[in-house]
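Each record in this resource describes a single protein on a pair of labelled lines. With that in mind, the following record should read easily:

===
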Amino acid sequence: MLDGNYNRKCKNNLGGVKAVWLLRWQPYSRSQIVTSGNYLVSFPETFIFKFESLTTPNANEVQQENEGGKFFEQSLSMTFKADNAKEFDLLLKNDWRVAFQDNNGLYRIFGLYNGMQCGNVDFKTGGGKSDLNGYTFTLTAQEEKQSFFIESLEETGFIEEGFDYYLDFNIYG
């Protein structure tokens, strides 16, 4: 029972995304993806590739509702230099899952069951030397359930690939 008293909690959380890993979406059965509550416990062994964005990536998750029911819309934006333009076809033509770590040290995964698509590409040349000359990609997904937390990438089944290249996509310039 609420007695009308509510104590404000300390604001010690940090916003923002610290690191992003992309993994190409593969269809797995629901029995191969093991969850417990809102944690991803086990995932088929998969290589993941760390991507470095020029700006701090932006992750967003919003619950929506349409005639089919409630769903969670997930999105993540990253920015890359313009000199990699011909290699961006990989982002545009494939579906992805995205694991990321926020600035509080928590890991999450977007696009777990349905995958994420690159639906928005924004190119800017900028007006000054310090302005962006590059591309901002926004990956979006619609999932039945909220994004899942991951306690440990390695113990869940993700293997971080140490290469600077993912296929022909050079993200480090």
About this structure: DSSP finds two helices and 14 strands in the chain. The two ends are 58 Å apart (CA to CA).
